[in-house]
Design a protein that fits this description.
Layout lengths: L2 H13 L2 H8 L3 H15 L4 E2 L6 E2 L1 H27 L7 E7 L1 H8 L3 H7 L3 E7 L13 E2 L20 E5 L1 H6 L15 E3 L7 E5 L5 E5 L4 E3 L2 H9 L5 E4 H10 L3 E2 L3
Parallel strand pairs: 3-4, 3-5, 7-10
Antiparallel strand pairs: 1-2, 6-11, 6-12, 8-9
Helix pairs in contact: 1-2, 1-3, 1-4, 2-3
């Protein structure tokens, strides 16, 4: 068996099915099924127990793949060492990166031309979703998360601090009730982000570090930050949005920082 087939066996085991492994390799699930069947025939043992819901490893499969994984890792490291020794240091392979839709469009997409020029041999797969991705099941190499911290068996590093601002279009503020303090938001038809921690209450911190939670309500509940920003620009109400997403709108006057 070649290395690609051996890696495919590992990916099927990690993902728990042909379809998710096929997405990782960008092939049809039927081709993954055939490759696994051919590998089992060549080995003379059944590696996977098939069911209508999920694949599970047989006892023989567990033994085989437990010893296969470190062997493949050694081969990969040996290949990288050989390339480094020969001066071929250009990155190759595939990098699967997960991020939210808004962060990917606003912060990552503008960097792609520079990245592509710097690493022409590397394939980048951007997995943009506002759902929390299972890094193991989806074979994610690197994920960018917005939040106070991360949990689970991962290695994490802080990229930068994110500040959220209550912003609104000038056209909205002209005819709206007073908006001078956080509590004034209770009289406004707010644009709400459909995520826990954003949809029912917004948290404010004063200069002396005191925290204040303000209940918010509104008839528009939006699950995507890009659409939420557009609704704010259209003058439909105040929204709580990350500074990196609205910096250009603030500079151009399309949005106003209502509670600086």
């Amino acid at each position: 068996m070649d290395l690609a087939t051996l890696q495919l066996l590992l990916d099927v085991a990690r993902a728990g099915g042909f379809a998710p492994a096929a997405r990782v390799h960008n092939v049809d699930p039927s081709s993954v099924s055939r490759a696994v069947a051919q590998a089992e025939t060549a080995l003379g043992v059944r590696l996977f127990q098939r069911s209508t819901r999920r694949l599970t490893l047989t006892e023989a499969g567990e033994v085989y793949l437990r010893r296969l994984e470190p062997a493949l890792e050694e081969i990969t490291q040996a290949s990288e060492a050989a390339r480094a020794a020969s001066g071929a240091e250009a990155l190759t392979g595939r990098l699967r990166l997960a991020a939210s839709v808004a962060f990917g469009q606003a912060m990552l997409t503008p960097l792609l031309p520079e990245w592509r020029a710097a690493h022409p041999g590397l394939t980048m797969e951007l997995a943009l979703s506002d759902a929390v991705t299972d890094l193991v099941a989806e074979q994610i190499d690197l994920a960018i998360r917005l939040g106070p911290g991360v949990s689970g068996d991962v290695v994490a590093a802080k990229l930068f601090a994110t500040r959220y601002r209550v912003c609104a279009a000038p056209s909205y503020l002209t005819g709206a009730p007073q908006l001078a303090t956080p509590k004034d938001l209770m009289a406004h038809d707010c644009l709400r982000f459909a995520l826990p921690g954003f949809r029912a209450a917004w948290l404010f911190r004063a200069g002396d570090r005191r925290e204040e939670t303000v209940a918010v309500d509104g008839k528009l509940l939006i699950s995507n930050a890009l659409a939420l920003r557009e609704a704010a620009v259209q003058g439909l109400g105040p929204a709580l949005l990350a500074e990196w997403l609205i910096a250009e709108d603030l500079a151009a006057g399309r949005l106003v920082d209502a509670l600086p």
